[in-house]
Structures are given as structure tokens and as C-alpha cells.
Amino acid sequence: MADAIVSLRNVTKTFPGGVKAVDNVSFDIAQNEFFALLGPSGCGKTTLLRMISGLETPTSGQIIIGGEDMALTPPNKRPTNMVFQSYAVFPHMTVAENVAYGLKVTGVPADETKRRVAEALEMVKLTHLAQRKPDQMSGGQRQRVALARALVKRPKVLLLDEPLSALDAKLRDEMRLELTRLQENVGITFIIVTHDQDEALSMASRIAVMDKGAVQQIATPSELYEQPTSRFIADFIGKVNLINAKVVSSSASKVVCDAKGLGRIELPHVGQAQGDIAIAVRPEKLKISEAQPKGASAIATEGKVRDVAYFGDTSHVVVRCKDDLELAVNVQNDKRAGGAGVERGQQVWIHWAPEDTLVLTE
Amino acid sequence: MDSWKVNPRVFWTLFTPGTFWLLLFFLIPLGWLFHDSFSDKISITETQFTGTLANYIRAFDAVYLTIIWKSVWISAVATALCLLTAYPIAFGICFAPAKWKPLLLLLVILPFWINLLIRTYALIAVFRTQGYLNLVLGWVGLGPYDMLYNDGAVIIGLVYVYMPFMVLPLYATIERLDRSFLEASLDLGGSQVQTFFKVTLPLTMPGIVTGIILVFIPCLGSFLTPAMLGGANAIMIGNVIEDQFKAANDWPFGSALSFLLMYVTFGALALRAFLASRSKGVDV
Q1: Do A133 and B185 touch (CB under 8 A)?
Q2: Structural domains for chain B
Q3: Do the Cβ atoms of B178 and A90 come within 8 Å?
Q4: Residue A290's domain spans which residues?
Q5: What is the ipTM metric for this complex?
Q6: How do residues A10-49 score in pLDDT, each as one tens digit?
Q7: Both A25 and A130 in a single domain?
Q8: Which of A28, A284, B53, B243 might form a disulfide with A1, Cβ 3.0–4.6 angstroms?
Q9: Are A66 and A213 in a shared domain?
């Protein structure tokens, strides 16, 4: 990537004891991106972030920030700053002292320090609490201190380790919006680590999904949701119906297969497929009807409603079909009366368009 | 645990033996000494309560003030040396691999399992003029030096004896210190040295203060170490008090000195409490 601010080249981290936390990871992050590292706990995403910050040293591979190899650069000399998961706001300093810390230790003149601290506090709306000690503040306020303390350094890259995980649900939504706005305003590359797919999907411009130390897919949020490249991604991002199938024949643009519970179906698919595959379809793409749908193009199957869970705006319906195939269907509750319109035990038809189906060979 | 009001019978069952013990073997003898300190000696074995302040006035004699002052500075130097040595040890144990920690902590407390008198004789064997240290120094053509029976020997002895009391509270505080504070300091551009003085040291202050108190107070009252390692003029206040109760057989004056020493200790604790209330946020 030409305008890459962070480049990872075959980065591997093996911890003493032989655990491979990060396994041969290479990718580029562009200037001004809001980049998310997403994955289940223990997938190596935090280790990767800590290697970018310099707090962890790669076993092998190269980390390049702003065109410079960081191999011999300690964390205090790197153009990155981190917002820690625990915030790590110094308890023995006031808010203003916390924010000023990074400028003082690097010898920024006092008057400039004062001005920049005031600006940073203004940015996170904490000016009125400048003289408070952290133990008199809420979690959300402490996080703002951590943000201001990192941003006041004007880093090339801001690293955020699970920044929202310690906040309650409502505050989390607010902070999510605020972080995206902040990123647009300051024009600094943000790299965020999260295990929460909603967080990654709603904030990031690009997401790297990690599992077992390796990057599984890097894509924009919508690509990741609609074009997952593997069963793991399809299952990890959002909800999905994964159905096992066996390929009968495949051509350049379509696949004919025998799917569990659905019989022989034809799906559009670019690329070769053979043997055992999975077909994936998102619950909101499925339709429920009482009568058999007309028109031969749709994929359809009959089943019995096992469960209806009401969520206000949507209802989640589980239907058991032939061969014990269970399909999850999300129904929009777009009328006040009737809810999902189906009841447990009811015999229904489920159908969807073949182009809403994904063929996953991995 | 429930408040004692909820179940008074259980409370008193648990509480009585300890209270009784403290009352019988601590408070009553202490009260008797307090009473004695206002008494006059009337024969070799008898004292009589007269309410006199003569014992206290005598304690402010220049001879005793000099010894008290000397005890304070010897204890202060020993405490400072303990802190300077123990901090890196405690830090090292905290950052050692988890499987080594119990062994390293055991090594710190191991000397407690050996009688103090024997340990002090062992120190003499090491430091005396024909001792092991001079033997080793002799191999490189140095010495022999007279290292025993002076203030320096007393200080070294006190540092050796009370080191674990400094290491253990420091270890407890450093172990509890959230490493992300240190990482945050490094990440914000602080060097290792800046991180130590601006973050690690202030945040481990509670352990430092506890360690200082745990070492300084027993140092001030010590008598075995100065008696064995110190020369005739390396005498500390503990030795004077011991003399009053034994050789001089002057219990009233010994009691008065003991209580004065206790007041010095209270003064030190009050100072700590004052400092703690001033630095809110850091829980001292």
C-alpha cells in the first residue's frame, strides 16, 4: 500500500512456553483509517496491538510505522500512543497532570504544555474536571482522560485496547459515536482492538478478523458481513444459517449441490467448488410464508416453528425442517398487531433468493 | 462477617481469650511500668510510688539525650540502607518467573528460622579481624581491617536483621501495582528512569512507608545487635534501658526511658498518619 502508515511484515510472536500468539501476520493500514482488530479472546489481537506500540517485541517479522522499521525503537520513542483497557490513568495525579505527563517527560516547554493540555481537555469535554483526582471520576470520564492523554501527544497512530468494554451499554453507544467523530476531527489513524463485532462493524472503516493468531479476512464492514470468505468469519460476524452441502457439479458461475434439508439446489458462485462445502444465509434474508411460495427461482423448504423470541423491532423464529435442519429467521415486526405472525408448532414455508446465499468452500 | 451485635455470644467466645491474654500479659505489666516510672527506689528490690517526675527529668540529661539521638540516627541510616537494598530485591522477586517467586520469598524469610543470637555470632565470624571477609580480602592483598565494634558494624547488623521486614511490605505493594501504569508511562514517552521516579515510586509509597515503620521502630529499641557488634561507645538506648533493669537495678528510671522511647514511636506513627491524610488518592 502506497500511503501505508503501519505495515506489518510476517509478524510472529511466540511466548515463552511455545504459545504462538501471533502467527505470520502481514497487512498494511492506511493513513487516517479507523482500523479494527476483531476476534475472540485469545486470538492474538491485543498482542498484535502491543507489538505495534512496542510494549511487546515480535519474535520475528517487521513492523514499519511511518516508513521506519521499529525493530530497535522502544515504546517511549514510537509515534504511537495507547488507550489501555484499564485506562491506566495515574491515580496520584490530577486530570491535568495526567494529560500533561507525556509532554513533560519529553521536555515540551511549559507554556506549550499548558496550551496543549487545555486543548486536549476541551476536545474530550473535561475542562471543568481538570483539577480532579481520578478516584473521584466515573469510568467514562477516566476513559476520556486516557484519550486526552494519548491524543495530546499528537501520535501518528492511536491504539485503543478494548476501549468500550468497561463501560455500561448506554455510555458505550455514546462513546462509539464520539470516537468516530473524534477520529474524523483529529485525522489520526486509529487502531482499535475489540471482541465485539457490533463495535467493529459500526466504527471501523476496515476490519481484520483474527483467529488463533492469524488474520482470517481483512475487509470493510459490509464486505465482511455479506462476503465472508470462510465459515469462521460468516459465523463470527453476525448470525448465520450454515448448512452442509455436497457439490454435484460446478461451473465458472454456478454450483449445483445437495444441501442438507433442502435437496438439490443451484447457486450462483464464482470460482471452483467441490466436495463438502457449506452454504450460508443470514436470518434476515429468509422469508416465512404459510403457503408454498410461487415461482421456481426461490430456494424453499417446509418446516415446523420451534421457537419465537420477541425483540421489539424484530422477532427471531427458529424453524425445524427436513433432516433436522434448523433455520433461524429474523422477521421485521413492521405492523403493530400480530408480532411475527407465526406461532410455535405452526407448519410454515421458508424461502429465499439463491443470490442471497453464499457458498463457502473453507 | 456479621456485626458483633447480631450474635454477641459468638463474638464474646472468640474475643475473650485474646482480650484476657492482652490484658494479663501486656496491659497490666505495661501499666505497672508506667506506675513504676513515677516511683522512687527505696531499697535494692523495692520501689515506692511518689508521683515524682525525677526519672523523666533525669532522662533529659545530656548523656541520655546524646544516646537517644545516636539511636535515632543509627536507626535512620539502617532503615535507609534497608530501603535501598530491599527495593531492588522486592522488585526482582515481583518480576521473576512465577515458579521462582515462592523460593525467592522463602530465601528472604529463611533467616527468621535461625536464632538471632546465632546469626549475630555468625556475623561476628564473618567480620572479625581474623574473619572470613578479611580472609577473602587478604587474597587480593587487602586488609586485614578492624570492622567490628563500631557504629558501622551495628548498622550493618541492623540492616541484616531487619531486611525481611522491608522486603515483604515492598513486595506486597509492588506485586499489586498494575503494570499498565508503567506501560502507560513508557508509551507516553517516559524513559525507564522517569517512569521509576514519577510513577513506580509514588505508587509504591504505601509499601515504602510500612517498611520504614516496620524497620525503624524495632531498630530504635534493639539492644542485642549493638551489645554484640557495637564497641563500648556504640551503645544505643535499648542497651541503656536493659542496663537499668539488670545491672543498675533502677526500674523506675528504666521504665521512664521505655515510655519516652514509646512516645518517640508514637510520634513517628502520627507523622505517618499526617502524611497519609495529606496525600489523598494514594492509599498510604
Answers
A1: no
A2: 59-278 (1.10.3720.10)
A3: no
A4: 239-360
A5: 0.83
A6: 999 999 888 899 999 999 999 999 999 999 988 999 999 9
A7: yes
A8: A28
A9: yes
